[in-house]
Design a protein that fits this description.
- The chain is α+β, with helices and mostly antiparallel strands.
- The protein is built from four helices and five strands; from the N terminus they run βααααββββ.
- The protein has a five-stranded antiparallel sheet with strand order 1-3-4-5-2.
- A hairpin with a 4-residue loop joins strand 3 and strand 4.
- The longest helix is centred in the middle third of the chain and has 16 residues.
- It is elongated.
Length: 132
């Protein structure tokens, strides 16, 4: 992969002040209407959270923008995520992507860390990008 070396990094703020509307819009787009994401009363009184919270896949989708901005959507070969903490309305999410390896076959392995405005890691992930 031309121009990419192990240790190269990029950082990107992918959302500022995440809104409840964005979370509900994602519920509609994904079909996932679990009430922990859309019903404040359920999320707080039944599930014990301080508020509704974003779908993990919404966080993953937002974070993926760093990969597509850096390499292009056509280069993405694999992307996985591990959700570490809930993301609540009002969150600002920053993604740090790091090139971990560059292989002779033209692919690069990356790690991702997503942090909220308080510096909490809310998601980690891995990706493989290529040019073939």
């Amino acid at each position: 992969m031309t121009g990419v070396r192990p240790g190269d990094t990029r950082e990107l703020v992918v959302v500022k002040d995440l809104t409840r509307s964005q979370i509900v819009q994602y519920a509609g787009a994904s079909g996932d209407f679990n009430p922990v994401h859309t019903d404040e009363r359920f999320a707080t009184r039944v599930a014990g959270h301080p508020s509704v919270f974003a779908h993990g896949m919404l966080t993953m989708g937002l974070a993926g923008r760093i990969l597509t901005d850096w390499f292009g959507v056509e280069a993405l070969r694999m992307y996985d995520a591990q959700f570490r903490r809930p993301v609540y309305p009002g969150a600002t999410l920053t993604v740090l992507a790091r090139v971990e390896s560059v292989d002779p076959d033209g692919t690069a392995g990356l790690s991702l860390v997503v942090r909220d405005e308080a510096g909490n890691t809310v998601m980690t992930g891995n990706a493989v990008v290529g040019t073939d």
